[in-house]
Amino acid sequence: MNRLRRAALAVALALGGGSALAQDPAPPPVADPGPPLSGYPRDALRAPTPAELKTATYVRDVVYGHRDGMALTYDVFRPVKKANGALVVNMVSAGYRSSWGPPEERQARYQALIDKGFTVVALYHASAPRFQAPDAVADVRLGMRHIRLHAADYGADPGRIGAWGASAGGHLALVAGMMADDGNPAATNALERSGNRIAAVVAYFPPTDLAVLLQGRLRPGALNVDPSLLPAISPIHSVDPGDPPTLLLHGDADRGVPAAQSELMRAALDRAGVQNELRLFAGADHDFYVKGDPAKTDAYATAAMTAMVGWFERHLRR
Q1: pLDDT tens-digit profile of 229-264?
Q2: What's the whole-model pTM score?
Q3: What are the boundaries of each domain within the chain?
Q4: Which residues contact 10 (CB under 8 A, 6 or more apart)?
Q5: Handedness of CA 259, 264, 267, 269 (dihedral sign)
Q6: Longest C-alpha distance within the chain, in Å?
Q7: What is the pLDDT of residues 35-58, one digit of tens each?
Q8: How far apart are CA 263 and CA 8, in angstroms?
Q9: Which CATH class is domain 58-316?
């Protein structure tokens, strides 16, 4: 061994018992899978385990109405044990696309609620691209009438119903809360005579004032509608003191639906004296996404789900 190599070995041994000569390679960076679907934690988007499948039973494909000859449906997830008598409706909508999935494939998304004894309803509306946002609003309002009318059939109290959704689904959850009524006694559709008021709302990064959001621009798809229709489908214009307690969850760096949309809703609820809370997630884009940091993205999504379940426990449980 020449003099130079002996000197290098001596230095390496002095610094760390030879470890400097054979360091383990640095672990590869965690790949960023992109934004999670509708702000769900990654774990909630997996298939449910066999044990989880035993915690709920299903009432499938309940028909609450029709549009263009096609059935409008919802699925019910009933907890097997410790049902608390409250019911939470999830607005299945992303970009006003309401994509149906078998209950046994979707259950993990609702497991945190099922484990707390909540009955869960996955509510589907007539979907984009064929149908537009005003159709979704009308469908959801009708569906909530049917759910409230039949809540007892699913072991739930019609006075303890909440609504939750993300993005377009968050908009529709606010529609369910702010645009509810006691029914129209003169309606020809018997279902329209039933009320659809609910007791709590949670909305993730929701559009609340579509005219402000679009700023006169026409967008393709479900929001490519006559601008004069936008106020009638914007829940912010229906806020009144009788509205339910509302939790808004939003990333403060959201470029798809700016956090200002939730801030406008919070201000309107404050003016009406409606109990509400807005939680902002620092640096989070739409879907609670933090680019390049999947751990933080998932932590935000998990915190949002925890907050959602807690809100419904606070306002729906007895």
Answers
A1: 999 999 999 999 999 999 999 999 999 999 999 999
A2: 0.90
A3: 58-316
A4: none
A5: negative
A6: 102
A7: 999 999 999 999 999 999 999 999
A8: 63
A9: alpha beta
